[in-house]
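Journal club prep — side note

Before the paper discussion, L.F. wants everyone to see what a predicted structure for a comparable chain looks like in token form. Sequence:
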Amino acid sequence: MKDIVRRDGREAEFEIASAATSTEEIANPVYPPVRRLLAEHGLSCSGKTARQITREDYDYYDLIICMDHNNLRNLRYIIPSDPKGKIRLLLPRDVADPWYTRDFEATWDDVTEGCEDLYRELIK
């Protein structure tokens, strides 16, 4: 999403962050196969480490996007209600999870599709 916004010259209009719903990878760097895939697409994730989403994130961000129903369910333990309608899935279906499928390209395609659609929606 950051790359889409950057290519359109609108970085100053967006703050984009990533956070996990679990604690399994907290403080770990980006998973090596993902790092390689991003590098193949000219994107760097240098210095990025995993953090867990917080209740405060709900107040701070305009949208909270989940990749799949499992993360959406986990998020409900951290942010139990969504009175402002900020929480949603990136796609109308689950994004392919490469942790289980090992198909990082399918995940890339899903995330790219979802981010491009979301960006078009946001700039309208």
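L.F.'s comment for the group: The mean pLDDT is 96. Keep this in mind when we get to the figures.
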